[in-house]
Amino acid sequence: MKILVIGSGGREHALVWKLAQSPHATQICCAPGNAGTAQERLVKNGSLVECVNLGAEDLPKLSTFAQEKQVDLTVVGPDNPLALGIVDLFQQHGLRIWGVNQKAAQFESSKVFSQKFMEKYGIPTAAAGTFSEAGTAKAFCASLGGKCVVKADGLALGKGVLICTNQAEAEKAVDEIMVSKAFGAAGARVVIQEFLEGVEVSLHALCDGKTAKIFPTSQDHKRALDGDLGLNTGGMGTYSPTPFLTDSQLADTARQVLKPFMCGCVAEGIDYRGILYPGVMLTKTGPKILEFNARFGDPETQVYLTRLENDLVELLDASVSGTLDRIDLKWKPQSSVCVVIASGGYPGNYAKGKPILGLAEAAQWPDVKVFHAGTALKNGQVVTNGGRVLGVTALGKDLKAAQAAAYAAVGKIHFEGAQFRRDIAAKAL
Ligand code: AMP
Question: Residue 88: is its pLDDT beyond 80?
Answer without folding.
Answer: yes
